[in-house]
Amino acid sequence: MILLQLSAAQGPEECALAVAKGLLRLQAEADGLGVTVRVLEEEPGPRRGTLRSVLLALDGEQAERLAGDWTGSLQWTCPSPYRPGHARKNWFFGGARFAAPAPELAGEIRFETLRSSGPGGQHVNTTDSAVRATHVASGISVKVQSERSQHANKRMALLLIAQRLAVHAQAQADAARAQRRDAHLQVERGNPRRVFRGERFEPIADRT
Q1: Parallel/antiparallel/unpaired status of strands 51-59 and 90-98
Q2: Considering the entire predicted model, what is its pTM?
Q3: What secondary structure letter does DSSP report for 191?
Q4: Distance (Å, rounded) from C-alpha 60 to C-alpha 28?
Q5: Which mean pLDDT values do the consecutive 10-residue runs of the chain (208 residues) have?
Q6: What residues does 57 pair with on adjacent strands?
Q7: Are 109 and 134 in contact (CB under 8 A)?
Q8: Of 117, 156, 108, which is closest to residue 136 (Cα–Cα)?
Q9: What's the per-residue H, E or C state across 142-188?
Q10: Of 173, 38, 55, 158, whose CA–CA distance to 109 is shortest?
Q11: Is the Cβ–Cβ distance between 3 and 163 less than 8 Å?
């Protein structure tokens, strides 16, 4: 099983439309390859029929190939359906594949089994197959009941925890970059803490 996320990131509404269209195209390609695609999570876009992001589970012998075709920067070239006459015709969105969890990750997670709830046919409420997984260090928690066996739900939970940890790490890295960028933009002109002069960059004096 592979987790793949399509995202419009901070792009305009045309990029969110590209994600929705991309999902339909990916599902059609998956059918041709015999790959099962399940939507795990989705964030609606600003307009009806658009998606800001969607998280998918891919299953099948050709899942690796399909994920590879949809990983990286993706471009949709089309005049804007929302802004007639707009000069821009290239809209970008991204595909990110989340790697299989490291073997040691399972030892960092607390698993609880519970009875499935909600719609799901005859298999719901018959066994304690649902799983709640919590990453102890971060507190990140997921509940999975989409699979019919406890083992399969644990596998899915591990993948989701790994995905959330990767997203969290990326968010922290992005925040650190933004902080460095802000610090660069906010350099004070005047009132220097230290002053250097000439080609030899010699300090004049330190201010206390």
Answers
A1: unpaired
A2: 0.65
A3: S
A4: 14
A5: 89 94 95 93 93 92 93 92 91 85 74 70 58 86 81 81 80 72 61 69 65
A6: 3, 38
A7: yes
A8: 108
A9: EEECCCCCHHHHHHHHHHHHHHHHHHHHHHHHHHHHHHHHHHHHCCC
A10: 158
A11: yes
